[in-house]
Amino acid sequence: MAAAANLPKFSAHPIVQAPMAGGAANPRLAAAVAASGGFGFLAAGYKTPEAMYEEIRQLRDQSAQPFGVNVFLPQPAATDPSAVAVYAEQLAGEEAWYGVLLGDPDAGPDDAYEAKVAILLEDPVPMVSFTFGCPARKVLDAFRKAGTYTVVTVTTVSEALAAEAAGADAVCVQGMEAGGHRGTHRDEPLLDGTGDGLLALLPQVREAVALPLIAAGGLMRGGQVAAVLAAGADAAQLGTAFLVCPESGASPLHKQALTDPVFTRTEMTRAFSGRPARGLVNRFVREHGRYAPPGYPQVHHLTAPLRKAAAAAGDAQGMALWAGQGHRLAREESAGRLVELLVEEMRAAREVAA
Ligand SMILES: Cc1cc2nc3c(=O)[nH]c(=O)nc-3n(C[C@H](O)[C@H](O)[C@H](O)COP(=O)(O)O)c2cc1C
Q1: Does residue 218 line the site of ligand 1, with CB under 6 A?
Q2: Which residue would you say has higher pLDDT here, 6 or 248?
Q3: Is 110 exposed, middle or buried (0-12, 13-18, 19+ CB in 10 A)?
Q4: Peptide bond into 297 cis (omega under 30)
Q5: Residue 294 lies in a domain
Q6: Distance 238 CA to ligand 1 centre (A)
Q7: What one-character-per-residue DSSP string does 220-231 give?
């Protein structure tokens, strides 16, 4: 195997603030992370291409540091539209409870992958990462020509090999512990217990590919960052840890829930979006997670009015409370202070190990 390539030095510290679609990873958060020597990401998922570009402009106004934009790969149509229709019937009680109609599963756009890629090629940003699949070689080549560094999210060794073969510059290795949607290249039929945890997966990917690795999943403390660097990663990507920062655009209810003792565990669920995602187990997950069908983004559109109504009513039991397994360790610090703390802890852990 060829010697592994190094990650170019985009930031002073090997700490990446994860892209978090749904509002959390906004320009303010990314700028604050970058100002403290971390690397910030914007999340284009669920956004129109215009809204994605507007956030890029805002971030450029707030920061001169390099940053990344994350894009979802388009998904094949729902495997079984009738299963989505059955799920809609099973959610009738939720409609009545929140006093809203379910969304039209087919109303939403397909996330406008091509249009987003076109904008990012026309006005290049330093880094683009992809999730839910691997772009075609010609897309990755076009980004390289444009001077943009490309990262493909992977959850298995075979996905990492596919990303390397397609010409990605680096991979983001996402362990099973990670909060939010699992970045598998295809939707998998099974949920919990099917994926590798980060510290099991990372060394396997390290031995299989020569690309730089960004490690993600359950990382909340600098000691864990030191551990993944020792296990072959070039940088650590943290989502849940940054979700609670005051700069994050996550809703206050979501932020509070992460350390609320009412929520005792996380689970991988399709209940809200039709694609496996890790979140706090609340009433909605308990009641609907068992039979929620595969079908992203149809189920995401179906449940959108319910999630919105739950948030408006201040009801965390009906919201998608995405969270990694380390959520209890969330610290409500400013993003800049959090980067500093992580760096201090990482250095202390490395001294212990030396
Ligand atoms: C609220 C939330 C939203 C997320 N949205 C995205 C996204 O849009 N794109 C993406 O690649 N990953 C997304 N992720 C996953 C992160 O990139 C990362 O893999 C994960 O946060 C790491 O696990 P941790 O939350 O335990 O740190 C999201 C995670 C969370 C918690």
Answers
A1: yes
A2: 248
A3: exposed
A4: yes
A5: no
A6: 8
A7: -SHHHHHHHHHT
- Answer whether 172's CB lies under 8 Å from 130's CB: no
Beta bridge partners of 72: 131
Domain that includes residue 181, residue range: 15-75+111-245
Q: Is 70 in the pocket of ligand 1 (CB under 6 A)?
A: yes
CATH number for 193: 3.20.20.70
* Residue 118 belongs to some domain of the structure: yes
What is the overall mean pLDDT for the chain?
Answer: 95
Write down the number of H helices and E strands in the chain: 14, 11
Residue with tokens 């809203």: 100
Whether 190 has a pLDDT exceeding 70, the answer reads no
Read off the pLDDT of residues 227-277 as tens digits, 9 standing for 90 and up: 999 999 999 999 999 999 999 999 999 999 999 999 999 999 999 999 999
Decide: 243 and 330 in contact? Cβ < 8 Å: yes
When divided into structural domains, the chain yields a total of: 1
Ligand 1 midpoint to CA 242 (Å): 10
Residue nearest to atom 17 of ligand 1 (CA): 18
